[in-house]
Specification:
Helices cover 17% and strands 58% of the residues. It is α+β, with helices and mostly antiparallel strands and 129 residues long. It has a single domain, classed as Sandwich (Immunoglobulin-like), CATH 2.60.40.10. A hairpin with a 2-residue loop joins strand 6 and strand 7. The protein starts with a helix and ends with a strand.
Length: 129
Amino acid sequence: MKRILKTFVLCISILCLTISASAFVVIEPFSINTHSLTLTFSGNSANCDVTISGASGTTRIDNVTITLTESNGTQINQWSNLSATGSRFTFNRSTTTVVQGRTYTLSFSATIHRNGVATPISGSITRTY
């Protein structure tokens, strides 16, 4: 009898813990900030494309800095103080002075403003020409 009572009390305790833990779960629609980078080459030019998409509720994307560097650390070009109102930032520029056989990195950093919170975001892509 004691064994059955202990098992019953244990089952009730587990059930109560499960119910209490569930009471603290906040259900919110899934949303995420995303980005896309594309680095292509043609002749002596590098084509740099960056798209940043803020999650639902994003009002501004600012402090955007985009940099193209060679693998040895040489900065080919940098664009800074870029921004966009709303939830989407797009950038498309070409730069010259790239050389076949070398490796280049396109990187960015930015701040996404959503629901009164500023969130940093960054990314990079590396390609060999």
